[in-house]
Design brief:
Blueprint lengths: L1 H17 L13 E8 L4 E4 L4 H18 L4 E4 L7 E5 L11 E5 L3 E5 L2 H16 L6 E8 L5 E7 L7 H13 L4 E5 L1 E3 L14 E3 L18 H13 L3 E8 L4 H6 L4 E2 L3 E5 L4 H15 L10 E5 L8 H19 L4 E5 L17 E4 L7 H7 L2 E4 L2 H4 E2 L12 H7 L4 E2 L2 E2 L7 E8 L10 H20 L8 H8 L20 E8 L9 E2 L3 E8 L7 E5 L3 E6 L7 E4 L2 E4 L9 E8 L4 E5 L2 E6 L2 E4 L4 E7 L4 E7 L4 E4 L5 E2 L2 E2 L5 E8 L5
Length: about 675
């Protein structure tokens, strides 16, 4: 009998082992039942039914599949044959919700959803499976994948650091690949005046959208045309990502008071609009109206963010006026058929004036500004974006430079807002977001640096907002395997080439004007070459990409140097005329180093700059039954970053000779 039991348990164990484990997908599948064996795709995609959007999705899937695997797919109509990937709608599958899907992989791979959005998310899962397979095979089994939260998002501050449209479009692709469905674009803001000689008139500010109502308001150092912004939203819609544009008033509004000084607050600072001035309302009404009125408004989506964070609460009448202002703009955007989104501030601005809450979304970022339980009781729909967990402020020395992804993965879901934990899938909590705030204009941070911080956070938040408390894979495995996935089909913004340390490119000689097969190489990298120096004019380039230039002779002083995002960084080294030297350049997310003949010539490392002011704000103190001053000092230091993702796409018109070029994807000694 004992022998029989041993044999029985062994058979059961082998049978269990034969079942395919849950495949690695970001976000993790919420349910998986493994079967035995693998499906070898036929190279065909079958679209069942006549839905035009389903056919478009199949076309996008085939294009993305080719980008990731190099293999072509043929699209046909019908129920498919053995080996086919089948897309179908079942509008009766209401249990899958608006975004869920079922993936049944047997002799065919059948993706079923109640909506086209659900089918689209299924294609992202199929693509991730495909790129992790050498021959495209898929593990047999069944997935039922339903998001735990409906808003899974990211907010990017484009005001204090201009973010080019090209990057926003790539960002949408990345978000879509990981089923993140909401991008909030923060269109106006300003720096802190302590870094601008304590002078509001000199302090950086920007409104990043083309504006006809107020000619001259649009930032001159970078902005989006209306058509660019519309086109970006259309592309995002096609990837099932919603764009929420944000115009932030009545604080963070220095761009508007620079344009129209009479609407600025003389008492609380020119970054505050004067809430007691009727001209303020006329101005802001006109601004919002330009983008939300008409049959084809610039803000195409169903939601518009009206800001309303961090206004002074120094006096009772100010608080009441702020509440009136908030209520006015909630109702104003609603009058144009939009749903209002706002920052949580109504605990900070507790008062008597009613503020509409029905069908209003509130970003809960700090419980002292908006107690989430109180906001829930008042009827707001909440988005969890707690600053203590989810705020990236690059190289600022406060909040996070990089999010603590391990902690978030193991401990956070959108049900945790600050110190308040709600039940999972509490109906008042729509979902979660994280944010990048570019608080320190002038600190040298590049878009590449921002992306380096965003990407691991994006992968992590994708899991925690979709799978929530159902996440099962240990973080260590997640962190290892996530690096094997692409950022998105056709996107390599990090400019990485594999996870194994290796030489990724070599050339015996680089000719002037030559194009190389690599656009650039990302952190951590090593570039080596032999330089036979000739006299070079200032501004002579060694290499250029779409994002940066490396100079043999920089435009100002004729030294080796580089420029990206408008920042020029120089090494204290000139091309030695008539001599041959070995050059090595290394770059990390913190420093850029120059070696000459094997010796460190110079390391460009973060440089500390100092501000000159501490601002005073006020907060309500219930123990004193009044308003007490507090010190609000976001930072008195700024850390300038001299980083470089090295450009390689095109050689410059140099006279020197460049030989034995080698590009490594690691810090080679």
């Amino acid at each position: 009998m004992k022998k029989l039991l041993v044999v029985l348990f062994a058979v059961i164990g082998l049978s269990a082992m034969a079942q395919n484990p849950k495949p690695f997908i970001i976000p993790e599948l919420t349910e998986w039942t493994g079967a035995e064996g693998e499906l070898q795709p036929s190279g065909r995609v079958a679209v069942k039914g006549s839905d035009k959007e389903l056919m478009r999705i199949a076309t996008v899937f085939a294009e993305d599949y080719k980008l990731l695997t190099g293999r072509d797919l043929t699209i046909v109509k019908g129920s498919g044959k053995a080996g086919d990937i089948v897309f179908q709608l079942d509008k009766k599958a209401t249990s899958l919700g608006a975004e869920g899907y079922e993936l049944d992989i047997t002799d065919k791979a059948i993706a079923t959803a109640a909506t086209t959005q659900g089918v689209f998310w299924a294609t992202r899962t199929l693509l991730q499976m495909a790129e992790q397979s050498n021959s495209g095979q898929m593990p047999k089994g069944k997935a039922i994948d339903i998001p735990q939260y409906q808003i899974r998002g990211f907010m990017i501050d484009c005001a204090r650091k201009f973010i080019p449209m090209d990057y926003l479009n790539k960002l949408v692709k990345i978000m879509s690949y990981y089923k993140m469905n909401t991008l909030q674009v923060h269109l106006n803001d300003n720096g802190f005046k302590q870094y601008f000689n304590n002078d509001w008139s000199k302090t950086q500010s920007a409104f990043r959208l083309e504006c006809d109502t107020y000619p001259g308001l649009t930032a001159k150092d970078g902005h989006y045309t209306k058509q660019e912004f519309i086109d970006m939203q259309i592309r995002a819609e096609q990837s099932y990502v919603e764009i929420i544009p944000e115009i932030d008033v009545p604080a963070h509004s220095l761009a508007f008071t620079h344009y129209k000084p009479e609407i600025g607050s003389k008492e609380y600072g020119m970054d505050h609009l004067d809430l007691f001035n009727p001209e303020t309302y006329k101005f802001v009404d006109g601004l919002f109206r330009e983008y939300i009125e008409g049959e084809n408004p610039v803000f195409r989506g169903k939601r518009v963010h009206i800001g309303t964070d961090e206004y002074s609460n120094a006096k009772k009448d100010v608080v009441e006026k702020f509440r009136e202002f908030t209520d006015h703009y909630i109702r104003f955007v609603e009058s144009f058929g939009k749903q209002a989104v706002c920052w949580g501030a109504l605990t900070h601005a507790a008062g008597d004036t009613p503020v509409k809450s029905e069908n209003v979304i509130m970003n809960c970022w700090y419980n002292g500004y908006a107690n989430p339980r109180h906001m829930k009781e008042q009827g707001y729909q909440l988005v969890s974006i707690p600053d203590g967990f989810l705020y990236i402020v690059p190289a600022a020395g406060y909040y996070y430079d990089y999010l603590n992804c391990q902690y978030l993965y193991n401990n956070w879901t959108p049900a945790l807002i600050g110190g308040e934990r709600f039940e999972e899938q509490d109906p008042s909590i729509l979902g979660g977001m994280f944010a990048v705030w570019n608080d320190h204009p002038g600190n040298g941070i590049s878009v590449k640096d921002i992306h380096h911080r965003v990407y691991p956070a994006m992968q992590t938040l994708a899991v925690k907002c979709w799978t929530g408390a159902l996440t099962q894979l240990p973080y260590e495995l997640f962190d290892k395997q996530r690096k094997e996935l692409s950022e998105a089909p056709g996107v390599n913004e990090l400019a990485l080439y594999g996870t194994e340390q290796r030489e990724v490119y070599a050339a015996g000689e680089v000719k002037a004007g030559e194009e190389l097969p690599l656009e650039e190489i990302g952190y951590d990298y090593t570039i080596c070459f032999t330089l036979e120096g000739a006299a070079e004019q200032k501004g002579t380039e060694l290499f250029r990409s779409a994002n940066a230039v490396f100079y043999l002779a920089d435009p100002e002083s004729g030294q080796l140097g580089f420029m990206r995002d408008g920042y020029l960084n120089k090494f204290n080294y000139r091309v030695p005329v008539g001599r041959k030297v070995e050059i090595k350049i290394q770059g990390t997310n913190k420093v850029t180093r120059l070696y000459v003949n094997g010796r460190l010539q110079q390391e460009l490392a973060p440089l500390t700059l100092y501000g000159t002011m501490t601002a005073v704000d006020y907060t309500y103190d219930p123990n004193q039954n009044g308003f007490a001053p507090i010190v609000y000092n976001p930072s008195s230091k700024m850390y300038y970053q001299p980083t470089l993702v090295f450009p390689l796409k095109k050689a410059g018109e140099f006279k020197s000779r460049i030989t034995d070029l080698k590009v490594y994807n690691y810090l080679k000694q």
